[in-house]
């Protein structure tokens, strides 16, 4: 991936065009930013502001959404809320500001299912103004996790025109990708400490990343550091989520990057560790678990925990089986639908496989393939008014408000499923899950709500404008799982 260092005030030209990419020996038509999949890594400094000038030379309307940034509302890239869609042939400028350190990413907010599966995503790394904000490392690596759905001939499973397909569970790919490749290789020296900036850019898949033989330390989410660093064996990322992990490679040889589920281990790539010892060892720094205290006032947070929520949001769905389309390709463009995909079905939950509320694979590919946004409606329902989705009109806040929101993922829905819920333009803290308080505070913009779970968050309404919150399973967000909310500058 190309890396671009941008200074305050810079203007960066971005070109969206079709490309052909070789995956597992077959050429696949995809879309790209500046001929790269993923798009260029943008490195900027905290507190800076840049302009991205995007030319759309693709095959569909688009926009540019900088996921997680607390940017100016007019440049959030949500057609129908902050702007009109960017037409084919149109050039548009997006002014981005970077108030918070961390790792963010950019992607379209038009037909997100098609855009992400086509390769339109890229990373933004925001360097903190405080040089001691992160521990010292020998090197940094950006890693974007994704997948792609190919038929037995190596062609992409086509998309429906005008409606979203795979609406039930989302489009799970059968080829896993790391930085756009099925099995990339990375090289480091023995004894090096490496910082991984991890982003899940998949439509629907939850990843669980492990690196056997290396020590891993979780230090941050996409929006900043945890109150307390911690040792981990693996890290879970739902669609839209980011994590920052430091890894110490003490042994030479090949270390396999793995995606681990209850049933299987999927290789993602290889880190080749050379035999020569690194010139500068930071192992002693790595072994210290730093704690910087709470993100907020701990006593105030404990008081909020005992209060009822200001808002309750129910996560549910409706489906009419009689309207389910047969996957005969009648609404598909390009090649006909494949009857069978090489999917791995999860085994039944047993004593050795606790139910974590996550579908790690597509358990019903035929039904999922046949479901569309016309037959499946995913819902965000306001607990007080019963209003649904974009019809919700009561989420009105004022800058400075701290809003306790309870996310209830109903297990009684026809097909309950996990949902990564993303709030645009703001940040929040996770207070509790299923009544158990969170002991390691951190800022977030996306949270995974497992099937049947209840998650309490505290939203900091800090950025005025008209925004949306939605499920970041691409097909769910476009099948009704999105709501508007407004933050006013003053009362």
TrEMBL record:
InterPro entries from the UniProt entry: Cu-oxidase-like_N, Cu-oxidase_2nd, Cu-oxidase_C, Cu-oxidase_fam, Cu_oxidase_Cu_BS, Cupredoxin
Domain Plastocyanin-like: 28-129, 179-255, 391-490
SUPFAM superfamilies assigned to the protein according to its UniProt record, in alphabetical order: Cupredoxins
Keywords, sorted A to Z: Copper, Metal-binding, Oxidoreductase
Protein name: Multicopper oxidase
Organism this protein belongs to: Candidatus Methylocalor cossyra
């Amino acid at each position: 991936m190309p890396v671009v260092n941008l200074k305050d005030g810079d203007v960066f030209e971005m070109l969206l065009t079709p490309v052909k990419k070789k995956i597992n020996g077959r050429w696949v038509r995809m879309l790209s930013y500046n001929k790269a999949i993923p798009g260029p890594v943008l490195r900027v400094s905290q507190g800076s502001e840049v302009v991205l000038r995007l030319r759309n030379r693709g095959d569909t309307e688009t926009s540019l959404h900088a996921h997680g940034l607390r940017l100016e509302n007019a440049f959030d890239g949500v057609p129908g809320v902050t702007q009109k869609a960017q037409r084919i042939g149109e050039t548009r400028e997006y002014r981005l500001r970077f108030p918070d350190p961390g790792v963010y990413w950019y992607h379209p907010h038009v037909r997100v299912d098609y855009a992400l599966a086509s390769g339109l995503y890229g990373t933004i790394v925001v360097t903190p103004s405080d040089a001691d904000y992160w521990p010292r490392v020998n090197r940094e690596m950006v890693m974007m996790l994704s997948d792609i759905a190919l038929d037995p001939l190596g062609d992409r499973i086509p998309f429906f025109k005008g409606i979203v397909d795979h609406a039930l569970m989302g489009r799970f790919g059968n080829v896993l990708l790391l930085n756009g490749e099925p099995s990339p290789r990375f090289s480091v020296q023995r004894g090096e400490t490496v910082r991984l900036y991890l982003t899940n850019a998949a439509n629907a898949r939850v990843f669980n990343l492990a690196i056997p033989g290396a020590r891993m330390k979780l230090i941050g989410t996409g929006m900043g550091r945890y109150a307390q660093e911690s040792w981990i064996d693996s890290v879970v990322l739902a669609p839209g989520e980011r994590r920052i992990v430091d890894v110490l490679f003490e042994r030479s040889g090949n270390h396999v990057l793995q995606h681990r589920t209850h049933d299987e281990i999927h290789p993602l790539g290889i880190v080749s560790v050379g035999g020569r010892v690194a010139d500068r060892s930071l192992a002693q720094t790595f072994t210290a678990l730093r704690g910087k205290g709470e993100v907020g006032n701990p006593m105030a947070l404990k008081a909020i925990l005992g209060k009822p929520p200001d808002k309750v949001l129910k996560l549910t769905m409706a489906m009419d089986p009689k309207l389910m389309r047969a996957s005969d390709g009648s609404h598909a463009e390009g090649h006909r639908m494949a009857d069978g995909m090489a999917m791995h079905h999860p085994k039944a939950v047993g004593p050795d496989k606790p139910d974590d509320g996550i579908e790690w694979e597509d358990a019903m590919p035929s039904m999922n393939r046949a479901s569309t946004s016309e037959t499946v409606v995913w819902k965000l329902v306001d607990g007080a008014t019963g209003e649904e989705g974009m019809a919700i009109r009561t989420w009105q806040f004022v800058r400075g408000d701290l809003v306790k929101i309870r996310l209830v993922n109903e297990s009684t829905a026809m097909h309950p499923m996990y949902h990564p819920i993303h709030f645009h333009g703001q940040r929040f803290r996770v207070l509790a899950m299923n009544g158990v308080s969170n002991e390691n505070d951190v800022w977030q913009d996306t949270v995974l709500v497992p099937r049947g779970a209840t998650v309490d968050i505290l939203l900091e309404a800090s950025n005025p404008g008209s925004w949306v919150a939605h499920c970041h399973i691409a097909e769910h967000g476009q099948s009704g799982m999105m709501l508007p909310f407004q933050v006013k500058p003053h009362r």
